[in-house]
Amino acid sequence: MTKRIAVLTSGGDAPGMNSAIRAITLSALRSGFQCFGFFHGYNGLINQEYTELSAVSVTDITQLGGTILKSARCPAMLEPAGVLQAANALRKLHIDVLIVIGGDGSFRGMQALAAHWQGQLIGIPGTIDNDLSGCDNTIGFSTAINTATSAIDKIRDTANAFERVFITEVMGRHNGHIAYHVGIATGAEAIISFENCTAENTSQVLAHLKNAIEQQHQHGSFLIILAENLWPGGAQALKTELNSNADINCALCVLGHIQRGGAPSVEDRMLATELGIAAVEVVNGSIKANTEVATPVMVGKIHGAIVITEVEKVLNMDKPVSQEWVQRYQHYLAEQ
Ligand SMILES: Nc1ncnc2c1ncn2[C@@H]1O[C@H](COP(=O)(O)OP(=O)(O)OP(=O)(O)O)[C@@H](O)[C@H]1O
Ligand SMILES: O=P(O)(O)OC[C@H]1O[C@](O)(CO)[C@@H](O)[C@@H]1O
């Protein structure tokens, strides 16, 4: 019997997800499988909102940001009843394989499903945050850092013209992969992120920042890259504190969802295509893990090679920002 493969995109959308959907569909059809797409993340699975994917449905999508299958958070999956509904839908639709493109939360959803459904579950890392181990980069990260870098380069121009201190807040949820990459790429004078700033040392960070600004901001701009969800009270509070505690006026830009949109970079299109093909190769048996792995698994790319890792391991391992980078940038906040 022909295998029935289904795919869904879940959590924050990420540029490149469409390339993965295209690669999965075309590879599945070439292997003689049927391919289906569920809409709106796990919601579409629970509500059986799906479409059969054909070569025509994935034509001209690889250059598009977002995801043709739509993405969403799905609170129902956090409840046992929702997981059971999702598992029942997979059984009812005779799905043999479910491929989930998303981040760590989406992978937890696969783990929950595995307890109630015997089919094959394969994850593809897709999130701008790059916070999944088992891969060098997640799909979407490259585009997001390029987008943020290009935006901050523009901010640098106006900041230079006004000789301004400028705070730019970037995404990343709870880690500094985006903050450090764009901070280094734009030559920012300071990076404030989870790796060098905690709830316990914010007053120290503020004092060091004030010193650094006073010493370096004579005739030019001073760019501060701030990770989201970090500073107590948010980026606006940091701006106010610099102003009231140190009489430093700064401008503020929250880059926000701009970082999730736009045409995917070449790197993201390539990575997503390779991982989509690899996921189907896991199904048809043309690639295998080096060791015995239990479902669900994730396909990722490490040092140029496709690696299959148990989702359990992916979720139990951290992927910290390079300590070397953190140390190198630390001196901007160090005691003067
Ligand atoms: N513990 C869990 N059990 C079952 N399902 C979960 C669990 N955690 C998350 N999910 C499902 O996965 C969805 C996506 O998770 P989440 O919102 O954390 O995004 P993500 O996949 O981590 O992506 P991103 O990092 O880009 O935001 C959730 O809305 C929920 O439906
Ligand atoms: O679009 P939402 O649901 O507000 O989620 C925003 C979050 O999603 C991400 O863009 C991807 O995980 C994070 O960087 C950010 O914190």
UniProtKB/TrEMBL annotation:
Main location: cytoplasm
Keyword check for Coiled coil: no
Keyword field: ATP-binding, Cytoplasm, Glycolysis, Kinase, Magnesium, Metal-binding, Nucleotide-binding, Transferase
EC number: 2.7.1.11
Catalytic activity: beta-D-fructose 6-phosphate + ATP = beta-D-fructose 1,6-bisphosphate + ADP + H(+)
Cofactor needs: Mg(2+)
Domain of life: Bacteria
One Pfam family recorded for the sequence: PFK
Domain Phosphofructokinase residues, every copy: 4-282
InterPro entries reported in the protein's UniProt record: ATP_PFK (IPR022953), ATP_PFK_prok-type (IPR012003), Phosphofructokinase_dom (IPR000023), PKF_sf (IPR035966)
One of the record's GO molecular function terms: fructose-6-phosphate binding
Coiled-coil segments on the chain, per record: none
Gene3D superfamilies: 3.40.50.450, Phosphofructokinase domain
GO cellular component, one term: 6-phosphofructokinase complex
Subcellular location: Cytoplasm
Pathway: Carbohydrate degradation; glycolysis; D-glyceraldehyde 3-phosphate and glycerone phosphate from D-glucose: step 3/4
A GO BP entry: fructose 1,6-bisphosphate metabolic process
Protein family per UniProt: Belongs to the phosphofructokinase type A (PFKA) family.
Name this polypeptide is given: 6-phosphofructokinase
